[in-house]
Structure formats: structure tokens, C-alpha cells
Amino acid sequence: MSTPPKPIALPVTAVTCLEDRAQVERTAVLDLAAGVQRLRLGPVGAAAVDRTLHAELVSGPPATVLDARIVRTWTPRGPRPPADGDSALRHRLHALKTEQRELEQRRDRLRTRLDVLGRLAADLLREIGEGAGSGESELARWTRELDRADEERDTYAERLRACEARLRALTTELAATRHALDLAEEEPAELVGHIELTVAAEAAGQVTLRLSHLTPCALWRPAYRAVLDGDTLTLETEAVVWQHTGEDWSDVRLTLSTARSSLAAEPPRLVEDRLVLTDRPPHERRTVEVELREEEIADLGPAPVLGLPGVDDGGETRVLRAPAPVSVPGDGRAHRVPVSVFSTAAPAEYACVPELSPLVTRVVRFDNRSGHALLAGPVDLVRDSGFAGRGALEFTAPGAPVELAFGSCDDYRVVRRTEESRDTTGLTQRTVVTRTVRLDLSRFSAPGERDERTVAVRERIPVAEVSAVEVRLREKSCSPAPDEVDAEGIVHWTVPLPPGGRRTVTLVYELSASARVTGL
Known about the structure:
Elements: E1 12-17, E2 22-32, E3 35-44, E4 54-59, E5 63-74, H1 88-133, H2 139-184, E6 191-201, E7 205-215, E8 218-229, E9 232-243, E10 249-257, H3 282-286, E11 288-289, E12 319-321, E13 326-328, E14 335-345, E15 348-352, E16 360-367, E17 377-383, E18 386-393, E19 401-409, E20 412-424, E21 431-443, E22 453-460, E23 469-473, E24 484-485, E25 490-497, E26 502-513, E27 517-518
Parallel strand pairs: 1-10, 8-17, 11-27, 15-22
Antiparallel strand pairs: 1-2, 2-7, 3-6, 4-7, 5-6, 8-9, 9-14, 10-12, 10-13, 15-16, 16-19, 17-18, 20-21, 21-26, 22-25, 23-26, 24-25
Helix pairs in contact: 1-2
């Protein structure tokens, strides 16, 4: 069987972009003759994975795909053209190099001449000093020679300055010419792939071919843009797509998946885990050792996203689809593809966690009404004044509440002070640790502001996990009384602040432990 020399075009019509690769689907209409024939289709990206190649005929007269394979051809580089046939850029590059070499030599000569004139002026001044010391007085000659030396030094210094300025400009022009030469005379890709398809058709006619394969050098990550307008938030979901597969994706149906086909799925190996009971020593029975442990519950501020993390899909494969055909050039750069957008009511509050940060942050809360899960990724924050910064969005299921921080407010100031006292009771020998936390909140308002704002303040108290240690909140000593104390030990206040107002919040709690407790 002979293969037609001219390949049949096989454009990309659909792409499923995975976390670190892409599933490419191609479609073409073939004119088949009756019998067995071999077709050449393409070109396709040379990085396509051979073992994932799958071809099927989906419509037309009865036909069968007997064989499908990727054939790559190596195109050797041609010989360099002769010197007379070089491009204008190469001639310009040669002229610039020649001029640069001449200017460098001229600069060296001028520096040498200035050095000689400097030594000549030094010798002349030494001669004047010696002559004046011995009683000679040749004022006219000394003045004439000094003026001549200074004039020549100024002349050659100006020539050196002009030479160095031209040399700097020439270096810049030379770099630009080299860059233009690299772009204009870059060698084409040497490795090209084609699909060789062997088909057996019972009758002549047109059939539709659908072919798919995996290809590396493609990935995507989620990104968001949150626009806050009063109490309304608009959240735009986008996919940032990179691909350098060797071909462009033009007007393709783009699907975004979090499937990780590169991870091998196998059950964990079972190993023995032996439990042994041992008697505690007498000194351990008489004491209870405790320690303070920090546990992170949540944070309000935007978390930095370093590097390019993987896609956090909550442990379940998620699939997103672009609403319209998209085009992604194969240049390896980041291209943003719109996925969804929705607007919802987002009440805002001013929140402060003084133990973590002295800043007051504007936080908005809303429900995920996008119709799909919001994957973890960076968020561009936009307010009335424009771009306000970049935050981070955690994984959020459809319909779940979302909390997003829109940066700190500069017109608030929070100062936190702590005091601690330790006491031991008489007979029971219990250790009582009293801690006092004072928070000073102040608001700096511009002239003309009349509205009162409330700040949600959160502090924490320890939570005891053993019965030998007790934690008690002294509500009567707290000023004002807390609005709520949750199970994690977070104490909540809602503090109103008028324009230019100041408030002090006091938190007092006790840690009580018996004499058996150590490490407190």
C-alpha cells in the first residue's frame, strides 16, 4: 500500500486539561475508497504519547481501523549560507562588532593619554615648587605651561566621555540586534509527528474519524477575581492554562479535570502493629505531666501562595468546562480562560485577632453559588478604589459558606498587653495562674465621618484536656462581658467604635492545677 505524500489535516477539536498533562481529541472527515488503504494525517505534536493513541470511525459507511501509529520524522538542519548571502541583520551585527572593537581600542588610547597628561601636570607642579624654593620666578612660563596641560586634559577627557557614551549605546544596540537575529533566523522544529492510519472500507464514501491521545507539557491551575461593590460580591472563576505541546489549540472545547492519571492506585501494604502494656513507675503515678500545645483552627488573613501548588480538589475528582470554545497558543505562557461568574450578597465585617496581628481586616462572607466546587487558588481582590491585593481561597463545596479577607484598614489601631500572676493556695497546694489581656482599640476618622462601625474582636483562652487542670473565665472581671465563648476557647466581642472613638477590652481567666501537675 502506498501512502499519499500530502498529509490530511487533523485539527484539535477538544482538550481535557489535567493537572500535569492533557487529553487531546482530534476530528477529521476522510474520503475513503473501497478496500484497504493507508492514510497520513497531521502534523501533530511530536510529544504525543504513543501508547495512549486511540482512533475510531464514528459515522459513514462501514469501515474498520486496522492500525494507528505515530510516525516522527527528523529534519536535519541545512548548511549555513555563504557570507555573500547573509541577511541584513548579520551584516549589521558584523558592523556593530567592528565598531565596538575600534571604540574599545580608542578608549584605551585616550585613557593612556590622560594618564600621561596627569603625570606631566604633576611633574610641572613639582618643578614650580622646586624653582620657587630656590628663588626662581618664571611666572609667565609656568602659567602658560599649566594652562596648556589643563586644556589638553579637558579636551581628551571630553573625547573619552563621548567615546564611552557611544560604547554604551553600541552595546545596547548590539544586544537588540542579536535578539532580533535570534527571533528572525530561528531554526524550525526538527521533530515532526504524523499519524499513519490503516483503514479497511467496504464501500467508498466519507467517514468521520475521531482520534485521541495524551500529551505532556500542558497543565492548568484555578484562579479567581473577587470584585466587592458595597454589599455585593462578584466572583469570577478562571483557569490559568499553560501548554507547550508543539501546536496551538484553536477554538477547542476545553475541559478541566483534577484527575491524576500519573499516580498509581494500589492498596497499602499491611504491617504488624504490636501493642504492649507496661506498668508505670511510682513517680509517674504520683504526677501528671502537661504541656501547652498550639493548634491552628482558622485564619482570617490572606495566605501567601508560594510557587505553583497542586490542585486541591478535596480528595474527589472535579471536572469544570469552559462555557465557550477557547484558543490557547502553544507558547508556554499563562493564558486565563473564563469558567464561571456569579454575584451574591456579601455582608462585610471588620475583624481583628490581636494575638496574631495588630491589624483590623475587612472580611466578607458569602455562599458559593457558582454551581461547582471552588478549588483552592489565588484570588485577585478588587474594591471601589481598584486592585487591593491578592488573597487565597480554600476548597469550598457548592453552596458552602466562604470567608474572604479584603485587606487591612489603616484607620484602626490595636495595642495588646498581657499580665500574668501565679499563686499557690494553702492546704490543697493548687497552683492558680491568672492572666489578664488588655486590648486598646482606636479609630482614626477623616473629617466628616459620622457612621459608627463595629469591630469583631477574637481572643482565646486555653482548653484543658485533663481533669487535673481547670480553666475558668472570670466574666465579672472582663470588660465588657464576652458575647460568646465557643468550644475551641475563642472569645468573641462586638465592639462599636464611633468616629475618633477609643475602647478598651479586658479579658481575665484562670488556670488552676493540683499539686500533682507538672509542666504548667
